[in-house]
Amino acid sequence: MIVNFIGKFLFFSGSCALGLAFAMDLQKRLSTLKEMQKSLEVLDRELGFALLPVEGLLSKVASNAKNEVKFFFDECIVRFASRQEERLEDIWKDSLKVELPSLEEDDKAIIEEIGSVLGRYDGESQQKAFQNIKNRLEENLEKVKNEIGQKIKIYVVLGVVFGVFFIVVF
Q1: pLDDT digits (tens, 9 = 90+) for 34-69
Q2: If DSSP states are collapsed to H, E and C, what string results for the chain?
Q3: What pLDDT score was predicted for residue 35?
Q4: Which of 57, 82, 92, 111 has a Cα at 20 to 30 A from 44?
């Protein structure tokens, strides 16, 4: 009897924890997008005021970034410094896949465009392209905020309901 109770309690706790884990993943996606947005603001400002080389520009952004986004820019810097015939666009794209796992493909597609713009055009053209990308990222961020508000509740409730269902059935 006690073993049965302990088993049900553990299963209930596990299903609740699983629901919370999914909710935390969504929250991490949102915080990563917000941090990337802040980093793009720094990048845009630096493009407008300072004519730093790409490596210096990335270093400046990395020093202001946090968490996954900092690791992303650090990876870009390391790979850019040691590159052999590799374009910045490819370095950006590969680092994006490796260092920002919490983002979904539509998030990455927007951020990926920055790599193709960075260092390719004159300052004014880069700023216009950045503004377009920032606007799209802002729209995506709002969509994610709305989506996450709904999904977090669903994941937590599903975890609890599944745990209760298991207790009642078994």
Answers
A1: 999 999 888 888 777 766 777 888 888 888 888 889
A2: CHHHHHHHHHHHHHHHHHHHHHHHHHHHHHHHHHHHHHHHHHHHHHHHHCCCCHHHHHHHHHHHCCHHHHHHHHHHHHHHHCCCCCCHHHHHHHHHHHHCCCCCHHHHHHHHHHHHHCCCCCHHHHHHHHHHHHHHHHHHHHHHHHHHHHHHHHHHHHHHHHHHHHHHHC
A3: 92
A4: 82
